Structures are given as C-alpha cells and as structure tokens.
Amino acid sequence: MLKEILKDSIIKELKLIKRLSTKVPTDSLDFRPKENVRSIIELLQYLSGAGTGMLLFWQSNETEARPFLMKLRENAPLVTLENAAAIFDAQIELVNEIFASISEEDLATKVVSYPWGTTDTLGKAILETSVKWLTGYKMQLFLYIKQASDLALSTPDLWRKTED
Q1: What's the fold here for domain 2-26+38-159?
Q2: pLDDT above 80 for 164
Q3: So what's the pLDDT on residue 152?
Q4: Gyration radius from the chain CA atoms
Q5: Which residues lie across from 67 on neighbouring strands?
Q6: What is the mean pLDDT of residues 23-42?
C-alpha cells in the first residue's frame, strides 16, 4: 500500500511539472527573480532528475551519492522546452520501473543513506527526497511562471490539473 502511495505521488508531481513545462513562455526561460537563484530553464533541468536521482542511487551498488548524482546531472543541460514533456514522460516510466523492483518490506525495513550522511528507511527516505523535492521545486516553477508571464495559472494548476 505504501509503495503505491509513494509511486503515485511521485508520478502525479511529474505530471503536474510536465504540464507546467508546457505553460512556460519561450521568452521567459531565463527568468529568475534575482541573481544566484535558478532560472525557469534551470528549474526544469533540475526537476528532470529530482524525482528519480536518489531512487536510482539507492538501487545501485554505489556507496558515494555525490559522484553518482553528478553523473546523472550531466544530461540536465539537454532539457529544453521542446523536449521537456518527453523527458518527464520518460521519468514517469522510470519511476514505474524502479518501483516494480521495490517491495513493501523494502520500504519499511531497508536502511539507506542520504548524501549528507544520515540514514533512514527507504520509504521515509523516498518521502524526504523524491516527493518533497518534486513538490517544492514544482511550486517554485509555478511561481516563476506566474511572475514571468500573464498566464492565468491558479491553484488547480499547482495541485491537481495534470492535463488541459
């Protein structure tokens, strides 16, 4: 049951992000509210792996998260408005594949390490990383799009509207 809840939550966030990516005005890609924060395109690039990076790390036999995640990020600059929807679709497929190999018992008992050195059960760690990172950065993307455009985005666009 927890397995389906976590998987469905991640997939829903990815669908919301995918839809938001279709709302970004092409002339707003470099919008950032101030210096030294991510732009809209940088947020999309980050979000293209935020839901699966840690899942892939915990599935691997690697012991050092940082080099593993940096390797995954090498493709992030390839994300554009034109291919974002396809990339988020691929992330959804990847989430389904990863969760197919996770059991309910794994979620409750398997102990995994965070990049910052602490440990947790896999289920809690997925919530603390993939789910929260997608949700938080999705909100940032939503707010940036609202600031950078005249689009009439509203609450459903952020929390439940996954299709037009």
Answers
A1: Four Helix Bundle (Hemerythrin (Met), subunit A) (1.20.120)
A2: no
A3: 87
A4: 16
A5: none
A6: 94
Q: Look at residue 62 and tell me whether its pLDDT is greater than 90.
A: no
pTM of the model: 0.94
Is residue 147 a contact partner of residue 31, using CB atoms and an 8 Å limit? yes
Q: Which two tokens stand for residue 32?
A: 């950032």
Residue corresponding to tokens 């998260």 = 65
pLDDT at 80 exceeding the cut of 90 = yes
121 bridge partner residues: 111
